[in-house]
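Weekly puzzle thread! Below is a chain. First person to post its structure in token form gets bragging rights.
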Amino acid sequence: MAATQSEPLLMHNTMRITPGHVEEFHQAVRRAVEFAEQHGPQYMVQVFVDHTQLVAHSFQLYADSAAVLRHWSLSDPYISDVMRHCTVESLELYGEPDEAVSEGLASMLADGVLRQAGRHAVGFVRGPQAVESERRRSDSTGQGP
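Winning reply:
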């Protein structure tokens, strides 16, 4: 894979929660996300849980491969804690990681857990403040969305 240091990466991780571990999983994920919010390089982290199916989906957006590597080095204890309560069913990677990230994911690729969805084509990231500001501006001009 070509080194693409400045390409954004979006990861969608699907996890199967171990039966009887739902509360422990929630606590571990909450700690991990709080840590990432305070110290991590991600632009966005969102976790959704389907309690009836015992499945969780985590979405993380990174500026580039360097941010993924930084996340891994900072968050390893938190990731390990979460993984005590689930197994990874699939990891979808959108974007093209550099060689270091590809090497870090190699075992998941070999196991068939990782699916790479291709190179980034176009897009943007808008923060909540920008969305609220646009909503207010639309409301004040009467033009609406």
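Puzzle host: Confirmed. Bonus trivia for everyone else. The mean pLDDT is 89.
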